[in-house]
Amino acid sequence: MITTIFFDLDGTLLPMDQDAFLKAYLGLLAKKMAPLGYDPDKLIRTIWAGTKAMVQNDGSRTNEAAFWSLFESVYGAEARKDEPVFEQFYREDFKLAQQACGFDPQGARTVHTLQEMGLQTVLATNPLFPPIATQSRVRWAGLTPEDFAYITTYDNSRFCKPNLDYYREILGKLNLQAENCMMVGNDVGEDMVAGQLGMKVFLLTPCLINREGADISPYPHGGFAQLLDYIRSL
């Protein structure tokens, strides 16, 4: 019996061309930090290196700690004094990156419909961002953070997709059994791996990411209407 639906965010509840979004986001961040002496190209390379450090996190520390450890290795420990400026960026400037995203009201309607059906919803977005940034993107999708029982962010997570320990960590924190959960996402490599733990999966295809060109026919897939039909059929 399915009790809990895990949703990815970027490209799932929030339609986007990931490359366009990242270009807009990193460009805005580089512009914000340039007056403090950060060379834009070096900063962007460091952000990517920090992202890699989070993706490779072995669980010995939070993703937040992994990111800032890498950042300090490049800029020195004194760089942490600029952390409030990064926070200000996410509060104020980050919203301009919304223009690189689409909007599909079906996403929010689907979440609310599932809640009306008595199902719990979890936002299982790759935890590479601080809470304030993830909460902003949730709102861009027409939802609120309160729509989810749990949201993964870089400060509360020790793993990233596609590491199966990312999903195990959520299951453990919420005291859930994999067979009672479903993962909904648009990324074949990062989201469908949840099926290896015994979770049901559904591949949302409007913003499909399939880097390896995998055969998607084994996965239930389609748009939000097909997702609701599939859940009702279980």
Give a concise summary.
This protein has nine helices and five strands. It is of the alpha/beta class. Helix 1 (18-33) packs across helix 2 and helix 2 packs antiparallel against helix 3 (63-75).
Structural description of this entry:
- The chain is α/β, with parallel strands linked by helices and 234 residues long.
- The protein folds into two domains: 146 residues, Rossmann fold, CATH 3.40.50; 80 residues.
- It contains nine helices and five strands.
- The chain is 44% helix and 9% strand.
- The longest helix is centred in the N-terminal third of the chain and has 16 residues.
- The model has no long low-confidence stretch (mean pLDDT 98).
- It starts with a strand and ends with a helix.
- The chain has a five-stranded parallel sheet with strand order 2-1-3-4-5.
- α1 crosses α4.
- The protein is globular and about 55 Å long.
Fill in the keyword field for this structure:
alpha/beta, five-stranded parallel β-sheet, 9 helices, 9% strand, globular
